[in-house]
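Question: what's this shape?

___
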Amino acid sequence: MRVLIASDKFKDSLTAGQACAEMAVGVRCAQPTWSVEQCPLTDGGEGFAVILTEAVGGEWVVCRVTGPRGAEVEAGFGVIETKLLPAAVLRRLGCASGGQLAVIEMAAASGLALLRPDERDVWRTDTRGTGELIAAAAERGVEGILLGVGGSATSDLGLGALGMLGLELCNEHGQLMTSGAPLKWPRVVSLKAERLRKLPPIWIACDVTNPLLGPRGAVTVYGPQKGLESEALVKLEAQSARMMVLLCASCGVDAGLAETPGAGAAGGIAFGLMAATGARLVPGFELVSDWLRVEERLAAADLVITGEGRFDDSSLQGKGPGSLVRAAVALGKPVHVFAGRVDAQETPGVTLHEVSPRDVPLAQALAKAGAWLRQRTEKTFNPG
């Protein structure tokens, strides 16, 4: 029996790699003769850069950068020889084999997980650290940069990052401002792009289709998830529209760019990088699938196991494990899904397993997620 274990992270408890490893132990304890292959998944958030770098044997570069609230944090990025990438990835990016590609995840420098719940405030967070990672990668002489933008703590249109790359945010006295956080925006009267550094091509791995502004925009859709209430949403939306106009004017691009599907990703950093650097959006799940050769692995497997922190009906309409489930079912592979919480209807060919007892407090469930996942997996596949 050939088993493919391809899990996403269990948010706030297990990385994708840890989840795969726990399930692999459970399977091997239950069925020692089965062949088990692990393939951690990523949606562009935490783990994106590490998973993709390790998958092709790239180099990991550690950096100290500015966190979302200004404190220094340790982050890093991968450097990969493009000749090691699958041809499908090179075609998707439109780049040639023979150089180096840097892989960065925004969450490592500007992510929500870096902050305590009481520190999460999009008025005071910015993306300076992500800009510092991009600058450090460019200094390595790479031919391109791939940026995953999941899990952000910010809604600054990427102005913090662009400030680290040479964009000048000026106040009414012509003085430069060091932070791109929205709390500072009322003092910004001009943006100057003349000193933006020259960068290699940037690709943004992104699966959301939200524009920058409006009822489906970054503030309206994702602001409440980051703690904003109705009155604050209206205020930040208005300020975002003003800064959008300033950035487009300074970079000489049409304001219609803000309507591009995906421009609202990660608090608008996708829009900011497109406007100022010419960055391009690429479908995140398809890119990761090509990179990890998921289709080939599914075809070779007799049994597919996946998981994530919460699996509900919307999971099957989204990316990550839901897309993996649909692909495996289409190939006629039996699928088992393990999740901390399951709120999805049964699907033909798919067996759902809820790992955490419903009566256990969340903090305890998160702390025991690894042990419970391993035990539940072993029990599921133990014939006794």
Notes: The mean pLDDT is 93. Residues 104 and 147 are 5 Å apart (CA to CA). The chain has two domains: 2-41+302-381, 48-285.
